[in-house]
Amino acid sequence: MISVRISGDPLDLAAEAAALGSDDDTGAVATFLGLCRGEAGRLTGLELEHYPGMAEAEITRIAQAAMERWPVQAIHAVHRHGLVGVGEPIVFVAARSAHRDAAFDAVRFVMDFLKTEAPFWKREHLLDGTTGPWVEAKDADDRARERWAAA
Amino acid sequence: MKLKYFAWVRERIGLAEEDIALPDDVATAGDLIVWLKGRGEGYAYALERDAFIRVAIDQEHALHTAPVRGAREVALFPPMTGG
């Protein structure tokens, strides 16, 4: 089971965790929560632009690839768009499986591909009230994704 | 064909989306980018580092060598920074 949602509203983490569900064969749940950093007090938040339709489709494709690779029972992912304040969640990914390795690996795989393949773009909102530059893609994120090709 | 632009590509072109009639000599996504660059200053600025521009055809990632003829929607955007 895969569920993916793009939200313009702040995330309710208890509700998102519940959306993963469980059954009698579930023995492990792994979750990842990504937050908006303040960058040493420079930012009030980040604005996230996305490609409606493709954003959901691409994260679903990534989750499907994870489910083909590991014995995972379900993956639930939700990603914010719009203005996200410092300290607020941007992304939540959860996976469940019989044993922990599959759930841990699937969550990390989904995050590593989501960073470089899901159509979202961040721009900084600065403490002085102005809008800063678009965030540049990081080579480290490409390397994190490429690790899975070698594994 | 509908074209969509995101992030700084959208800002530099000055449009979020537009409908175009594909010229006969445009076969691939790379051809489309070259053709768009000739349509004005905003396009030329947005697409100046054309190898850097990412392409999606009908909401799936595609290479610059991918054919665009017959596509409903082509999107051009910078490398993604979600998560």
UniProtKB/TrEMBL annotation, chain A:
Keyword NAD recorded: no
Describe the reaction catalysed, as an equation: 2 [molybdopterin-synthase sulfur-carrier protein]-C-terminal-Gly-aminoethanethioate + cyclic pyranopterin phosphate + H2O = molybdopterin + 2 [molybdopterin-synthase sulfur-carrier protein]-C-terminal Gly-Gly + 2 H(+)
GO biological-process terms attached to the record: Mo-molybdopterin cofactor biosynthetic process
Q: What is its EC number?
A: 2.8.1.12
What keyword terms does UniProt attach to this protein?
Molybdenum cofactor biosynthesis
The pathway it acts in is: Cofactor biosynthesis; molybdopterin biosynthesis
Query: Tell me, what does this protein do in biology?
Result: Converts molybdopterin precursor Z into molybdopterin. This requires the incorporation of two sulfur atoms into precursor Z to generate a dithiolene group. The sulfur is provided by MoaD.
What protein name does the entry list?
Molybdopterin synthase catalytic subunit
Automatic annotation (TrEMBL), chain B:
Q: Which SUPFAM superfamilies match?
A: MoaD/ThiS
Q: A Pfam family name for this chain?
A: ThiS
Q: Which domain of life is it from?
A: Bacteria
Q: Which InterPro entries match?
A: Beta-grasp_dom_sf, Mopterin_synth/thiamin_S_b, ThiS/MoaD-like
Which Gene3D superfamilies does this entry report, sorted A to Z?
A: 3.10.20.30
Put simply, this protein is called Molybdopterin converting factor subunit 1
Organism in which the protein naturally occurs: Acuticoccus mangrovi
